[in-house]
Amino acid sequence: MNGKTEAAPVLAVEGLIAEAAPPAGSPQAPVRLVDGVSFSVHAGRTLGLVGESGSGKSVTCLSVLGLPPARVRVAGGRILLRGDDLRSKTPAELQALRGREVGMILQDPMTSLNPLLTIGRQITEMFRYRANIESRTECEARAVDLLRRVRIPAPESRLKSYPHQFSGGMRQRVAIAMNLACNPGLLIADEPTTALDITVRLQILDLLREMQAERGTAIVLVTHDLHLVRRYCDNVAVMYAGRIVEQGPVEAVFAQPRHPYTSGLLGAVPRLRQPQRRLTVIPGQPPLPGSIAQGCRFAPRCPRADADCTAQYPATVEPQPGRSVACWHPEPASASAAAPSAASRAASVPLERLPLTTAS
Ligand SMILES: Nc1ncnc2c1ncn2[C@@H]1O[C@H](COP(=O)(O)OP(=O)(O)O)[C@@H](O)[C@H]1O
Ligand SMILES: [Mg+2]
Question: Which atom of ligand 1 lies at the shortest distance from residue 68's CA?
């Protein structure tokens, strides 16, 4: 945390559009999976990207990484890494960036580790190619250091293991270790701990936070777990059906959500001081991409929706500095929820006693 909030962001995504091509030969138009998404992340900061399953979080991340899924292409917007538009890069340039300046940790590290090569071989090769270290002994020594850094027990002998011989948590640590080695300015972590149990989940995220504190990494953390957002993120962007509906500092958004979707999500988390309060889960399902042609995509599920909402998509407005909301009828700003104290963030109930919020 450099304390200089006016510094340029490490990553600025502006009006990102990602579209899925229709099946070959089909007369249908491409379907927008991500529709005008904008956010930015500064050095040493973490942005939480949240929303129900299918809201476009992964497509957003993969598009930023230059790795959109099959049949999906980035059709608009800018992806600025320290001001440099990644959309103008060649695939080879993007690949080089992913090795060095942009790290990624995905839900299943098996997808980024080669199952046929030992962990040691993968880490030493990474040092050889990315850091141009020739000496095998030097590479191995560094690999042992790295594994030790992410607290893999007996790292010397563990270098000889294959990925499948590691637990999910250990594989995720290896993925973090490999990212650490490259010292990326930006790290995109898409549900990095969803497959892991709660204790391991916190260990992994603590490790990421440690790395961030040392190196000032900007992190985009995708999660459907709002407790993790509260604990690890500075800012939060709430996605619904391909768009960001609300964005702002975590404390402010959690204390006083303005978009009905955000308050629905938060309503599913028990309030700390009202443990008996019934959990509200937003009724209904998110729409399929492309199924709502006009108006707010949340309108069919929204308790505040009226004719305005189905007529036209709401513009994104800034109800308070640093916050944005795309809603015709945002939740009113109530005085009682204003100015969240530092204590509200610190007063955390043990996480394992709280349910996860949305199905994802
Ligand atoms: N390759 C693809 N082709 C067509 N549709 C896709 C493809 N990948 C994802 N989608 C659709 O895009 C939407 C957003 O998906 P995704 O970004 O994976 O959601 P999330 O990560 O928020 O759960 C979903 O409706 C999903 O079915
Ligand atoms: Mg996803």
Answer: 1
